[in-house]
# Entry
Amino acid sequence: MNVLVTGGTGYIGSHTVVSLLENNHQVIVLDNLSNSSVDVIDRIHKICGKELIFYQGDVRDFALLQDIFSKHNIDAVMHFAGLKSVSESINNPIEYYENNVSGSLSLIKAMKEAGVFTLIFSSTATVYGNPATLPIHENMPTGNTSNPYGTSKYIVERILQDVAASDKRLSVVILRYFNPIGAHTSALIGELPNGIPNNLLPYICQVAMGKLQQLSVFGDDYPTADGSGVRDYIHVMDLADGHILAMNKHHQDSGVFIYNLGTGRGYSVFEIIKAFERVNKVKIPYCVTDRRTGDVAVCYADALYANQKLQWQTRFNLDDMLKDAWRWQQNLAREKSQ
Ligand code: WQD
# Structure
């Protein structure tokens, strides 16, 4: 199929583009490069030896979208383009609603006008807010979000549900990611945060590299086994596979289909630190600080629905995720030193 991938040079987008190309789909990438680099296109080519078509631009540019849809016979769209930092969203809510909500509205309008009716939307477990029970199932309440990033994703979910209810030609798949980490086994693509990383794994990698002095563990007084926060970490390549299976299953379907993409297993911050040190034979100095505002104690998925409906099974375990994350970080450093 011809697949338009918005945000296709970003962390999750680029890994999904590799999977799409390896599954013999034709890929058109639209990315404004606000949080990624154009050399990712070459890296993708190095990995799979396949060409793709790249447009530098923004999903809010309606005329550009019309141009892309007029030039390419798009069968499905995967929508990754958006801003994704919880802390940044608290300081810049307008930017987050502009990018994430207006961008998605622009895209769905252009899709309908062009007669393209299959959309895979990159959502997040953050829409569940602070879960009342665990593991988190797709039917659990959403919308009790605690930051503009999570709220923007929730709003887009609601918009897509309303638009799909009004037009039965649409097939919308909402994929709620838990905590994507790791990198492609080639170490040619991976997470490339701008500035000081907000997320745990890229921060740990930069401490391991000596680029950052020590990790701050945001609280060890949570009601968990060791007091630190628990999350459901999932390999980014497993996440990518989930997108392919969801598109294959629901292309030319009708309605809205929501899936958690998580492993169903939670690990605490201290467990991640210990595992990273063990598999990569490095030390991660850390100190314990106050909790981070907006963090929940525990968050992990009930992944059964995606397992059963999409025949989606995760291939990578935590050791794989931590090895691949580190290998990518080391490769980046090597490239920069050349
Ligand atoms: C994980 C754990 C922190 C950094 C967010 C978004 C989610 C998704 C992933 C986009 C928590 C602890 C972290 C640090 C720490 N984003 N931590 N020190 O907050 O679960 O999820 O990022 O798709 O939508 O909500 O991920 O990696 O920031 O935190 O102790 O320097 O690590 O408290 O327990 P989070 P995270």
Observations:
- Residues 15 and 237 are 6 Å apart (CA to CA).
